Amino acid sequence: TRIHDQQLRRGAGGELHQVADGGTPPLTTAQGVPVADDQNSLKVGGRGPTLMEDFHLREKLFHFDHERIPERVVHARGYGAHGFFETYKSLSDVTRADIFQRAGEKTPAFVRFSTVVGAKGSADLARDVRGFAVKLYTKEGNWDIVGNNIPVFFIQDAIKFPDLVHSVKEEPDRGFPQATAAHDNFWDFISLTPESMHMIMWAMSDRAIPRSFRFMEGFGVHTFRFLDAKDQSTFVKFIWKPKLGMQSVVWNEAVKINGADPDFHRRDLWNAIQSGDFPEWELCVQLFDQAFADAFEFDVLDPTKLIPEEVLPPIPVGRLVLDRMPDNLFAETEQVAFMTQNVPPGVDFSNDPLLQGRNFSYLDTQLKRLGSTNFTHLPINAPKCPFHHFQQDGHMAMRNPVGRANYQPNSWGAGPREAPTTGFRSFAADEAGSKVRLRPESFADHYSQARLFYRSQTPTEQSHIAMALGFELSKVQTGAIRERMLSHLLRIDDSLAAKVGEALGVARMPKPADAAVEPRDDLALSPALSILKN
Ligand code: HEM
Fold first, then answer.
1. Dist. CA 74 → ligand 1 center (Å)
2. Beta strand extents in 68-140 (DSSP E only)
3. How many helices and strands (H and E) does the chain possess?
4. What is the model's pTM?
5. Is 388 labeled as catalytic in the residue annotation?
6. Are 251 and 467 in contact (CB under 8 A)?
7. In the beta sheet, which residues pair with residue 86?
8. Distance (Å, rounded) from C-alpha 210 to C-alpha 132?
9. Strand partners of residue 349
10. Helix-, strand-, coil-residue percentages of the chain, each rounded to 5
11. Shortest CA distance to 365 belongs to which of 121, 113, 73, 69?
């Protein structure tokens, strides 16, 4: 950093004034009025009361007083970077998404990594899921893949999301713990929610304390659809694979790093990109049709399940390179608004009930957080392709329809028109049935994939899971909750349950939890799940 020699002047009270010269512009108010003195407010005499007419002081304090906006209700702590996505080859046989039509096509991208639970100022190395949200500024509109570094989720239905998040955030009477899963409320909810067991195995594994953002995988989690030019559908799951491979720290390291440098992950990404060591991920897709979905052991609409990579090998379709840090953290990283419902033509949703709820939730939360329906006018959220619509006015409108027409159809030949052949069309799925609140039976197996994940791990990784569970549950004050968790673990793996029981000093193990579906032993082990084997 260059230290500028400023022209310095000393005021009557000994205060220093830095005066504009050829190299620095004059300071102005937000209205552009040049400021003569930024060190002293306007007073009656040197020691008298401050005058209300001091518009510079008033404007400066007013603006400062309003600097904070609500932090994200989840994923408040995050760090972003710009880059690009490069398509390897045309996928026109499965999707008409413009981004996948031409090999070598480069699409601008912005990525925000985050923790989920902690507040904006919390530490980077908390044991937590990491958000991996990607905004792709495609030529046919913004496409957000709002994913995590874990391929499954805690709950099956969006209606449980507020409960999950309330349980994991600080307890409402005492305001702690702030950023860790180690407390009664969280384990109470989890132990009463057997569908969360698969995710819990991942959250207690090394995946939840990554060495850096650069060594993490990312997952879209839900099943989506690709639609081709004839609107034929192929199911798709999205996976980001880091070129550097995966690395994690161990818990003792995480605790020390958090104490010594709570910005560890931020600093790592900043340093890597600033020194030209650009992190890179391959986007891989798992593609399958309705026949595969019908034959697969689990419901592909259930977000607590994955499709093992040896059952359906991920196909690399492009690479993501992060090569530029934002110029301004607030303007870009904080104000970026990711939304699962941002999909371009050629990408569509499945009926995954968690995804359907998310599609509703993100628009809502962005309005609250960013304060205006015009948040798409912010440069970080605006498309980088031409766009034309008739939306107008509202707080902070920076773009309104030009000319006479702000509606259509109109007789003036003015303004944009519908694009029936190239525009976004939804998959014409056949849907019929009675209107019910019902969890389908195909979502009922909560333990088989939890077992699959645990057993896919190396002995070292398995011991880390057992230690994490022992440590976290040892913080739970209520014996009945610890017991409930042990009863679930007995359904997942006896030896895991025994290790955790021993760590908790439990003399007599409880009965295994009731299970609607007996956990299976016959699933192929998935070596791709282990970090140490990769
Ligand atoms: C952020 C809701 C499930 C990934 C958020 C935010 C909300 C939210 C309200 C804050 C957004 C903001 O203020 O900008 C929900 C709901 C869910 C759900 C209602 C379930 C029904 C998930 C799942 C994933 C996920 C399953 C991963 C696949 C993310 C990420 C962010 C986020 C990565 C941070 C985006 C950023 O960096 O700005 N979510 N979420 N969420 N969510 Fe979810």
1. 7
2. 78-87, 106-115, 130-138
3. 12, 12
4. 0.96
5. no
6. yes
7. 106, 319
8. 13
9. 224
10. 30, 15, 55
11. 73
Could you state, in chain order, the average pLDDT of each consecutive group of 10 residues for the chain (534 residues)? 74 93 90 97 96 98 97 98 98 98 98 97 97 98 98 98 96 84 89 98 98 98 98 98 98 97 98 98 98 97 96 97 98 98 98 98 97 97 97 95 93 92 97 97 98 96 98 95 98 98 97 95 74 63
Minimal CA–CA distance to 233: which of 351, 123, 129?
351
Cβ-contact 118, 178 below 8 angstroms: yes
Return the residue matching tokens 């209606």. Answer: 159
Q: What are the start-end ranges of the E strands in 325-359?
A: 347-349
Side chain identity at 441, as an amino acid letter? E
Q: How far apart are CA 103 and CA 81, in angstroms?
A: 24
Own/partner contacts of 396-401, CB < 8 Å, gap of 24 or more, are: 396/372, 398/374
> For residues 162 and 40, what is the distance between their CA atoms, to the nearest angstrom?
49
Are the beta carbons of 317 and 103 closer than 8 angstroms? no
Residue type, 183: H
Q: Ligand 1, atom 24: nearest CA belongs to which residue?
A: 147
Residue 173 identity: D
Which protein residues are within 6 Å of ligand 1, measured from CB? 72-75, 78, 112, 114, 131, 133, 146-148, 153, 158, 161, 221, 336-338, 354, 357-358, 361-362, 365-366, 369
Annotation says 252 is catalytic: no
- Structure tokens given for 192: 């009463």
Q: Which atom of ligand 1 is closest in space to residue 219's alpha carbon?
A: 28
Angle (nearest 5°) at CA 2 between 265 and 10: 115
Q: Position 250: which residue type?
A: V
Cα distance between residue 480 and residue 493, in whole Å? 20
Q: Whose CA is nearest to atom 22 of ligand 1?
A: 358
Query: Which residue's C-alpha comes closest to atom 30 of ligand 1?
Result: 131
Q: Which residue has the tokens 């569509």?
A: 348
CA–CA dist 360, 363 (Å, integer) = 7
Tell me what ipTM this predicted complex has: 0.93
Angle between helices 184-191 and 161-168 (to 10 degrees): 150
Rounded-to-integer distance, Cα 161 and Cα 74, Å:
11
Q: Which of 69, 73, 75, 117 to mutate to test the pocket of ligand 1 (most atoms within 8 A of CB)?
A: 75
DSSP 332: I
| Of the candidates 530, 466, 534, the residue with the CA atom closest to the CA atom of residue 499 | 466
The terminus-to-terminus CA distance of the chain in angstroms comes to 40
Q: How far is CA 64 from CA 61, 67, 68, in A?
A: 5, 5, 9
CA atoms of 468 and 466, how far apart (whole Å): 5
